[in-house]
Structure formats: structure tokens, C-alpha cells
Amino acid sequence: MTAPRLLANENFPRPALLKLRAAGAAVEAVAETMPRAGDAAILAHATATGAWVLTFARACSELVFARPAAPPRARGGAAPAVG
Fold it and tell me: Is 61 inside any structural domain?
């Protein structure tokens, strides 16, 4: 199974982001590629790219549960089991 792409929100700790990258994880940082983007735009970007969002923002979880979408799929694999 291919490792998931990750999208680190601006509130995600930079030291953790750097450690993930050093370990070989594909992590896109919102602060670098789409600074000051709103939560809805971040979730739309994650959905479009198949990335998993790393965030501490409660508003993101409210958006996710208010507008549920299919779980992300790992590239080349099946959707993860839910529940």
C-alpha cells in the first residue's frame, strides 16, 4: 500500500512537519503552498489531491461531519475500513 499524502494545516507544529518530511513522508504545508486559506478551501484541496489533513482546528472536523464525503483512498488501494 502506498503511503498517504499529507496536508499540514497552518496550526500543525512545524517541528512535527519537518520530522515527517525527514522520515520520507510526502507532506504539503498549507503555510507554504496556500497561506491563509480557509478551512473549506483546505478540505477541498485535500479531497482533490487525496491528501489526509493534519490539523488541530475544530472547525475542520465540523466541516467534515457537516458535509461527509467518502473516505480517502490510498493510491492504488481500497478505501480504509470505517467503523
Answer: yes
